[in-house]
Amino acid sequence: MIEIIGLTKTFGGSPAVDDVTVTFPASSVTALLGLNGAGKTTLLRGIAGLDRPDGGTVTVCGQQPCGDPRLVGVHLGPGALNPRHTVWRHLCWVAALAGIDTARVTEALVETGLSGGRAERIGSLSLGARQRLAIAGALLGAPRALLFDEPLNGLDVPGIIWFRGLLRRLADRGCTVVVATHMLGEVVLSADRITVLDRGRLRVAGALDDAVPADAAAQQWLESTLMGCA
């Protein structure tokens, strides 16, 4: 379980995340929604312990996050991958930095369907394959919580179906899974819960079937926000 209380993070005097209090339960997939600039990536980085918050607290399974990939696996997209490295070298490098056994590299390659391309250089891979590689990096530590930031970008239809199944398997293992996404069709198919941010503030959080605002104005706002995410 991930518990966030009063989390605040400011950049240049403007709050990117503003006093957010929310819980992400274990054994569930939560879709994190919001327009560009709503604070989704900042929230994920705060949960992972990659950014120090200006205020508030985050605990993951009762522990403060400290960048340990065995506690929190984080996917922030394929943009930072070194194009000169091979798939195998990249994952071995990440595993070595974290003190993770190389056997987990093989397992992550199998789980992401990249076993046949382990000798390929990252620069030669399609965007979808690079996305899978970034996901493999998040899986390396067999973490108790997993955070994914727009993981479907570049995936083809078989890849999207594969990722949908991966989310379900992770939740069934007891993991806490949070996915920032703009693909609303996938939210309905893969998420148990939704959390909606608006300009850094929490607007909606709860089970997918129950997270409907009570009044008409809030309902209209939610609909317009979700349409903006599409």
Structural summary, described in words:
A hairpin with a 2-residue loop joins strand 1 and strand 2. The protein is globular. The mean pLDDT is 91. It has 230 residues and is an alpha/beta fold. The protein has a six-stranded mixed sheet with strand order 5-6-7-3-8-9, sandwiched between helices. A three-stranded antiparallel sheet has the order 2-1-4, with helices on one face. The two termini are 28 Å apart. The longest helix has 16 residues, at 157-172. The protein has seven helices and nine strands, in the order βββαββαααβαβαββα. Helices cover 35% and strands 26% of the residues.
Beta strand count: 9
User: What integer value in Å does the Rg equal?
Assistant: 17 Å
Task: Tell me the number of helical segments per DSSP (H or I, 4 or more residues long).
Answer: 7
Class by helix and strand content? alpha/beta
Q: Order of strands across the widest beta sheet?
A: 5-6-7-3-8-9
Helix content range = 25-40%
Looking at how many chains there are and whether they match, the oligomeric state comes to single chain
Order of helices and strands: EEEHEEHHHEHEHEEH
Please give the alpha-carbon distance between the first and last residues.
Answer: 28 Å
Low-confidence spans: none
What does the largest sheet look like? 6 strands, mixed
